[in-house]
């Protein structure tokens, strides 16, 4: 008997997917390179991680920044080969190479010397570029790779190692560029960090809803028939009362949230609702509902 693997992508689609990723990795790297050369370098601010180390060394030695970024990241990219797979390594090395080219392309392209503008807009643009690269399964910095390895050896979290590494880097930048510039650099890092979250998670967050009510069947019927919201019934037992309970689970858009709460209150004002943000939703049912709104 011959079996068909339903999850295997056609070769043509795989090639198109790779090309698409390469394009977005290039775009993200060039956006990040523009932020570094147009906003950070002219104002003696740095990014975190290996890129930040490269910026300090480039300032002290006058070596090419793009070349230093690529060279200093090579050991971490090699380290990722045994930990994260060939595909991630190739995409990361490609993105880092594009960043090196971008910093040379935008060299001496100074947008502003206003520190506040450089902090806000430099951080936003940098976060946009890094977020695009991360969303397409690449990386512009080897710090995260190093942190993953060290976290397993020393029992620390990845976040703790990255924070410790960046404290050292920003401390060094304070000695080289001055403490005021180091503080601006830290602010830039936090702005970029928030923008990265927005790029990866998106602005259009959906809501995951759990409803516990004695009128679960009636509520579910209204949600399905009147609001066209797909629901799932989960069965459990009340911890205090010991009574069997039916819980409704569904995912709605932000626009549907108010209609859902109004419908639930009309049927059972005492119903318990738990609402959680959902950053990504897959499935044609959800997409069709959102398109109708």
UniProtKB/TrEMBL annotation:
Keyword hit for Cell membrane: yes
Keyword flag Repeat: no
Positions of the DUF2179 domain: 230-283
Family annotation (Pfam families): DUF2179, YitT_membrane
Organism superkingdom: Bacteria
Transmembrane segments annotated in the record for this chain: 21-41, 61-81, 88-109, 115-134, 154-176
Protein name: YitT family protein
Species lineage: Bacteria, Candidatus Scatousia
